[in-house]
Design a protein that fits this description.
single chain, mainly beta, 60s Ribosomal Protein L30, Chain: A, six-stranded antiparallel sheet, two-stranded antiparallel sheet, 1 helix, 65% strand, globular
Amino acid sequence: MRYTEGKVGRIFVLKFEDGDVVIDTVRAFAKKEKLKAALMVFIGALKKGDLVTGPKKPVIPPVPNKLTFKNAWESLGIATIFTGTKGPQIHIHSAMGQAVRTLTGCVRGRSEVFLVLEAVVFELKGVKAAKEIDVKTGLNLLRILS
C-alpha cells in the first residue's frame, strides 16, 4: 500500500438537473474549479446509463461485466476525482434501486440524471496523486506520486 496525506480544501454543493450526464457534468465542474483531487458523495436518481458490475472473472487484465440500465433508479454513491494526463478523471460507484431490485457498480458512459442528483464535493489539498493508465491491467488507476 502507498499513501499520501492532505487536507480538506473547498467544499461544494452541486445540484444536477434532469438529463445531465453525470460524468460529463462532474468533469466540466472539476475543470472550471481547477480541482486536482476531490471526493464526491451523492443521492438522487439516474434515468439511464451504463454500469460495470465487476469483472467477468478475477483475472488480470479484467474483462468488465457491463450492463445498461433504464427507467430511472434511485441512486446513492461516492466518487473520486483525480487529475490525469487527459484532465479530471472521474470514478463513480453507486448503489441503485428500483422496486425490489438493486444494482451496485461503477457508473460509466453517458449515465443521465432523473429529476435531480444532489452532491457534496470535498476538495483534497496537498494530496500527491494522479490517475494514469496502468500497463498491466489496462485500467485508469490511482497512482500515489512521490
